[in-house]
Structure formats: C-alpha cells, structure tokens
Write a structure and sequence with these properties.
By secondary structure, the chain is an all-beta fold. It contains no helices and 4 strands. Helices cover 0% and strands 31% of the residues.
C-alpha cells in the first residue's frame, strides 16, 4: 500500500493515493487515529454501495491471494 498511514494532504476529504466511487462520504479524521496524525473516515450514504480505492505500489500477480486489514 502506497500510503498505509493515510498521512499527507487530503483533497476533498480523500487521503493521498486513494479514490472513492459511489455513495460514500470521505473526510480526514484527526481525533480517532490508529497511528500517526490522520485516518480516512468513510461514511456510506443511503442504501447503494460505495467504494474507496487505496493505491498499491508494485505489481499484483494473478492467482495470488492478498489481504488488507482495516482498523
């Protein structure tokens, strides 16, 4: 993951190297953080699904399993 600590300059509430799609609202959280000074806060709006994409450095290989843990 390019920015696992969700640090840096947020643009429109979205952390660097992240993007959103659908019915979610994103904002920078500075009070309830796991480590560092920032966290990406994501709130789903309505009943439709929304997604947040996190940038990954390097290449992912087909046929392999990858796991991400979200606190």
């Amino acid at each position: 993951v390019i920015n696992p600590g969700f640090e840096g300059t947020y643009v429109n509430g979205i952390a660097p190297d992240c993007a959103k799609e659908g019915n979610v609202t994103c904002s920078q959280e500075t009070n309830n953080v796991h480590g560092g000074t920032s966290a990406q806060k994501i709130v789903r709006s309505g009943t439709d699904a929304g997604r947040v994409f996190i940038g990954v450095s390097g290449q992912l290989a087909a046929g392999h399993t990858y796991q991400a843990t979200i606190w």
